[in-house]
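Bug report

Summary: structure tokens for DNA double-strand break repair protein Mre11 differ between web form and batch submission.
Environment: batch mode, default settings.
Steps: 1) Submit the sequence below via batch. 2) Compare with the web form result.

Sequence submitted:
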Amino acid sequence: MKFAHIADVHLGREQFNQPFRYDDYVKAFREAVEKAVSERVDFILIAGDLFHVSRPSPKALRDAVEILEIPRKKEIPVFAIEGNHDKTIREASVFDLLEHLGLIRTLGLRREEKRDEFLRSKRVADRYLVWAEVGDTRIYGLRHHTRWQLIRGNTNVLKALFRGGDILMLHQAVDYLAKDTPYQDAFDLKLSELPDGFSYYAFGHIHVRRVAEPEQTGLRGSIAYPGSLERTDVREASHLIIYGERDKRPKVKENRDGPKGFYIVEDFQPEFVEVKTRPFYRVTVSASSKAELKRKVEEVAGLIPKEAVAIIYLEGTVKGGISLAEFNDLLKGSGIAYYAFRSRVTGEAIISKELVGEEVLTDWEKELLLHLREEPKKFPLDEFMDWLLEKYRQGVPSKMNVRLPKPAEESKKLEKTEEIKPIVAEKTKETEKKEEKEKAGKPKVEKKEKRPRPAKPSSLDAWLGGKI
Ligand SMILES: [Mn+2]
């Protein structure tokens, strides 16, 4: 059994408002799918963010249809989940349309039962869990959810839904693999929160390539992120040029997170397949005067290939600071496909940003700032509101990614403010028992159903905060 694992395609994105960047994203997807098909895979997985937005343009949709026709003609099924960029709470999504055309099959919790050559369904609360079977390989998946939807009190929705199988496809950032990525302090799941018993964890969301082997994690299978198919952020640059204040000449090196592509997985072992992408240079030029910055920038331009994208950071302490307008026309004649300057130059007597961050802001304010700095697409308003409400529910904690309060703690709070009713005491006992069991490593989430509950009927909908 052999399959392709692709993630974070972001079709429809026109990076830097450059039409050629739209084409680059389409080309990368076409190359990945063609390579997968020529490898004669049994199926293709798309682990979220096929599109850059949940309502793609007709052009992006046409390109997706054209490319997805390639595996369909060879009768290679494509299984997909929605990512944070392309999920929707509307009743019908673009994924439904592609599914209707027979181009993809969407896995996860769905409103309707799905059964065909590959899809199987099981009723869960008021939804259907839809998974795929290819031969004797069982593939499960769930679209992107926020941490606050997945881990609610001591209910872990993932562990409740998934009790093992061959492949688990998710679009979430796991802390263990998020080091040195934008998700380092904003992960969705801790390693221990992943359901065990899968031979391969086909993940998306982190845009750089990462694999964690079973020996590292203690899980049955590897957790793998193929990374985005094209470069979505300067951190994913192919090359780095550093021209420091004391350097006689610039240093050029390849970025460890530079190569882009996807995995071909055989016997649950991922093998990286590179996809050709446009060179992308991240340049840092440091100097103590405007004239020196300009001279160094012109010198560096000779090292950047014409077809490249280049983001040039200007650094140093320059009297009176600089205006980027004076740099924007500097490389006009260079022929470089796209370049942009970012200034980190400081005038004198500026309070260190680090000092402000460390000394003045509380942890919760730092986290808030971190979220506000995110692109709205990456952290949409509805998720931000979820997050904010959850923080307030917890009484604005001071630690990042704090553990959610355990029901036992909540009960204690109740005891202080209200009369102790027998039912509260009973709940606490049961919760304690449950916690002991969890400590022993056997979470039994279905027990929750037997606990005294409010009049509202239990449903997965309620677990997920009314949004699936
Ligand atoms: Mn993405």
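Above is the batch result. After comparison, the two runs are identical; trailing whitespace caused the diff. The longest strand covers residues 127-134. Confidence is low (pLDDT under 50) at residues 397-458.
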